[in-house]
Write a structure and sequence with these properties.
137 residues; mainly alpha
Length: 137
């Protein structure tokens, strides 16, 4: 990666980067350094997957771990990396058969809180039972 290109963390953290790095540094300076240099500046900047895909995977993994603060960071990061709200919702829905409804519901709640705080509308009522494509007029 050239010095002119932004690091993945610049995109993922966006305007929250200083706050996030300060929080990590307050927890432990060595931890902050290792997260920044290894997780973001090494793993996330590797070739092979685009950043949006990496972030959608991270979201699913963080739902599995039950880590709301980190999930919020990576939901925002996925959106910053170009994922649409529908793609983020798709990643969270994919968690249901593997992790169960409680974990997925918790992930959707973090997304709802993020969208609400960002002033973005959450979707209206989705499809209901018996309202499939064949039921449309």
């Amino acid at each position: 990666m050239s010095d002119e290109s932004p690091h993945a963390r610049d995109i993922i953290f966006g305007s929250q980067q200083a706050r996030i790095l300060a929080r990590l540094h307050e927890l432990d300076p060595d931890l902050a350094h290792d997260i920044q240099t290894y997780a973001y500046d090494t793993v996330y900047d590797r070739p092979g997957l685009d950043l949006k895909t990496r972030e959608l995977i991270a979201c699913a993994l963080l739902v599995s771990l039950g880590s709301p603060p980190e999930l919020r960071t990576h939901l925002r990061g996925a959106l910053n990396a170009g994922a649409t709200e529908a793609e983020v919702r798709g990643a969270l829905m994919t968690c249901v058969p593997y992790l169960g409804f409680p974990r997925a519901v918790a992930g959707f709640e973090v997304l709802r809180q993020h969208l609400q705080a960002a002033g973005q509308a959450t979707p209206k009522a989705g499809p209901t039972q018996g309202a499939g494509p064949e039921d449309k007029v």
